[in-house]
Amino acid sequence: MESERELLLVEENPRKGGLRTMPFIIVNGSFERVASFGLQANLIIYLMTYYNMTAATGTIILGLWGALSNGLALFGAITADFYLGRYRAVAYGSISTLVGMIILWLTAMIPQLKSSPCSQIQHVCNGVTALQLVVLFSSFVFMSIGAGFVEPCSIIFGADQLENKKNPNNQRILESYFNWYYASSGISIILAVTVIVYIQDNYGWKVGFGVPAILMFLSVLMFQIGSPLYIKVKPKTTENLVIGLFQAAVVAFRKRNTRRPLSDCDEFYRWPLESDVLPPSKDFRCLNRACIIEDPQRDLNPDGSASNPWNLCSVEQVESLKALIKALPMWSTCFMIFVDINVFSFSLLQTKTMDRHIFPHFEVPAASFSVFMIAALTIWIAFYDRVLVPLLSKYTGQPRGLSPITRMGIGLISSGMSIALSAITESIRRQRAIEEGHEDDPNALVNMSAMWFVPQYALLGVAEATHAVGQVEFFYDLFPKSMSSIASSMYTVGTAVSSLIGSILVSGVDWLSSTGGKTSWLSSNINRGHIDYFFWLLSFLSFINFLYFLVVCRFYESLNDGSSRLSHVAEDKECDYRLLHES
């Protein structure tokens, strides 16, 4: 009923929403991405230079920052849907990001907010004060909060402006909007890792951090200018899905000692006559206790609804919880590929010491090499969708060419190959640096082209393209329709967990490899360290993860054969359990 009232509001007030709002929303999202990704690409160099962090410490800090940003995306989506509304979430998030960028820019402008670079002659480094670190980390926190609200809400807020189910072209308009939104996102990231990085390398950090702050200010301004035109959908007042899942788990735990037989169907399960038949599945039968009616007088209201949702849950809630549990093993296989992507910041230190000239008078900035990954990702998605899908569907019988699980496996293999190539390339680079007498000079230029790193960046782009899209499709197939939003959010939460795992891994390797006074594998002097050993370790872990992936796949053979969304079909001997409408 709420969605119908919203649609009527759109029709009664044609001055709200529509294509006229798209420039404000797309510009807001595009400028936010240019500013955010432009800051992140080169930030490891800033931390090492002005905060005297080692390469390992800087990577750990950036990993934790990424984990916080991605983890808050789920919190931001829930808060927007049920408390703030998407308009206020995007507005508040954009302002928070702007505040964080201004604080980071101030650290470059005000000498007292950062440490002085280490003396290359006397090898003396000034210590970093607690106040300087507090200011730096506060900028990260503000930007993480902003990203947590903007990233999950901006694209859906744009869809709110175009949603009109009575329009026969509604689906085509929405598909066109999503295509343009993602196209603008790709262009924004490319501009961030090229133009913004070039400015930072050639004009310094004051200008390099100032430009993103200005772009973010324009992003906030453009979004607010369009405010009178927006359709502002109010937050939902109904019970949200996350709370429903938590209730099902709590009720099942409370009823863990229930000994009533599960065969007496009419007495124990919620059963309003007007509901569709939906028997609880046999998987995780212990959870079925959550929808057992132990005392109808106590558990049910006169209209048949649950008197206390923390004592009795619907079959739908229980089945949703089961679907989430089923997804967790496959979800855990995705961590390693994102760990590989997150620790690729070490490649920035490698390419910075190599010949990056494409033409005699044009040198690619070290932080801009990730553009090869983005380009490979974009090209592969287009090539797979337009060329491979029509060809493969004839042989596999699947409209999507390859099953989601197969594509996820290809992504895992590609990421492992990329890291192995990085280990080989680093071994060659390090050997040449030592032969040329640069063992004690990590900033010396090695006579070796940085284009050696292009293949691994391209492989990593293909890996992310195949795995990420396959993973989202897999979860969408596995979950019931009511959990479609959870399917997309699991990808974001997975990247957050991977960032945290990557930080822990870097910290552990740095500590273990430096015990006994030895030079750490992840030393800031990469000519003395052994980043190649670290990459070989990641390759081995990627191989182990792929074997784990193959074991997990045995539990999902039905989806791998091309079946769509899972359904629970009642057997002849099972009782006709029915859903209870929500109170």
UniProtKB/TrEMBL annotation:
<protein>
    <recommendedName>
        <fullName>Protein NRT1/ PTR FAMILY 1.2-like</fullName>
    </recommendedName>
</protein>
<feature type="transmembrane region" description="Helical">
    <location>
        <begin position="491"/>
        <end position="513"/>
    </location>
</feature>
<feature type="transmembrane region" description="Helical">
    <location>
        <begin position="180"/>
        <end position="199"/>
    </location>
</feature>
<feature type="transmembrane region" description="Helical">
    <location>
        <begin position="205"/>
        <end position="225"/>
    </location>
</feature>
<feature type="transmembrane region" description="Helical">
    <location>
        <begin position="130"/>
        <end position="159"/>
    </location>
</feature>
<dbReference type="InterPro" id="IPR036259">
    <property type="entry name" value="MFS_trans_sf"/>
</dbReference>
<dbReference type="Pfam" id="PF00854">
    <property type="entry name" value="PTR2"/>
</dbReference>
<keyword id="KW-0812">Transmembrane</keyword>
<feature type="transmembrane region" description="Helical">
    <location>
        <begin position="361"/>
        <end position="384"/>
    </location>
</feature>
<comment type="similarity">
    <text>Belongs to the major facilitator superfamily. Phosphate:H(+) symporter (TC 2.A.1.9) family.</text>
</comment>
<keyword id="KW-0472">Membrane</keyword>
<dbReference type="InterPro" id="IPR000109">
    <property type="entry name" value="POT_fam"/>
</dbReference>
<dbReference type="GO" id="GO:0016020">
    <property type="term" value="C:membrane"/>
</dbReference>
<feature type="transmembrane region" description="Helical">
    <location>
        <begin position="533"/>
        <end position="556"/>
    </location>
</feature>
<feature type="transmembrane region" description="Helical">
    <location>
        <begin position="89"/>
        <end position="110"/>
    </location>
</feature>
<keyword id="KW-1133">Transmembrane helix</keyword>
<feature type="transmembrane region" description="Helical">
    <location>
        <begin position="43"/>
        <end position="68"/>
    </location>
</feature>
<feature type="transmembrane region" description="Helical">
    <location>
        <begin position="404"/>
        <end position="424"/>
    </location>
</feature>
<comment type="similarity">
    <text>Belongs to the major facilitator superfamily. Proton-dependent oligopeptide transporter (POT/PTR) (TC 2.A.17) family.</text>
</comment>
